[in-house]
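user: can you give me the structure for this one chain? tokens are fine.
assistant: on it. calling the predictor now.
[tool input]
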Amino acid sequence: MDILNYLDYSMEYLHIKTRNTRGTRRGSLADPRALCDIRSARDQSSILDPRALRDIQKKIRVRSAFTTIEMLVIIGTLSLLSATLILYSRTAENQIVLFKEQARVISILSRAKSLSIATYGKPNAPCGYGVHFEAPSTLLIFKDLAADCEDSDQKYSGSSEIEESFQLDPRVLFDSLSLSDILFIPPDPKIVITPPQDEATIVIKTIDGSSSVTIKVTSAGQITTSF
């Protein structure tokens, strides 16, 4: 409607200028052809403008509806992707924690073995070093103390034998332990597993039970892993 007001104003202005002009030829300031063009434009605008407005409004409504559908599709897609990424992230995080703790247990076993060899022959050296396992998440490096190593019980006997203490990450725990102790007796070192067995199994799992890893230790000292 603004264009109609503008055209009315233009016509009125030109008529006034024509009436107020003195000493000049009529129409020199307001050309009749200009007035005709304005009238024609005004008539066309008054006829076409409502239809044009309806067309524009229709396009806006269609576009608005289409945009709403687009937004719903985008929101749904993003929600699905977010849920997938969160689930994948948690699963990946659990796997990383499991691998980390698996490597940590192997490292603790290796440390006990190294300590038994490093202290061999030294004054007041223990009979050996080993690892004691306690469910759900505790493991200890212990030293086998005995006045006579020939008479040693070759297992963890109490807090006086603790060398170092460790806890698994709170997000994981021991799921299955076929052993309570493994002792390394220098100089070889000789491997003693309690209770006696040729191959001990240590299973670590996540708190929710979704993933697990396995460590196997043989009486010959070989360590293997599986997932």
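assistant: here you go. The first helix runs from residue 2 to 20. The first strand starts at residue 129 and ends at 134.
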